[in-house]
Amino acid sequence: MASLKTKTKLYLEANSKTWDKAKVELQDDGDGAYIKLWDYDIAEPTAEQIASYETAGNAAETLQGVLNTRRTEYPSIADQLDKIYHDGIDEWKKVIKKVKDDNPKS
Q1: At what angle do helices 4-14 and 54-73 cross, to 10 degrees?
Q2: Domains, the chain, ranges and CATH?
Q3: What is the pLDDT along the chain (106 residues), one digit of tens a residue?
Q4: Radius of gyration of the chain (CA)
Q5: Of 46, 29, 27, 28, which is closest to residue 37 (Cα–Cα)?
Q6: Which of 20, 48, 76, 99 is deepest in the core (most CB within 10 A)?
């Protein structure tokens, strides 16, 4: 289940807005997350509007997980440059491709 933050971000993006922590605040008092503060020049989303972003929210969170995993598995920039210098660009591409193949976006 996608988080309220992810679904709220998607709602904002669909309305040509971006997340601004000074304009939106989420809170969870133990009964589920809710929007505590809303200071945008568009209507605060209804529960139904937020729910409509569940599928897109799940996809966005899954993609972010893959990108985070890739980030930790790529060699450091220094090691990548060293690989290019010593072994050439084609060998470097193999290293990068393996990380991408091991962690596909979809």
Answers
A1: 110
A2: 1-73 (3.30.56), 75-106 (no CATH)
A3: 999 999 999 999 999 999 999 999 999 999 999 999 999 999 999 999 999 999 999 999 999 999 999 999 999 999 999 999 999 999 999 999 999 999 999 7
A4: 20
A5: 27
A6: 99
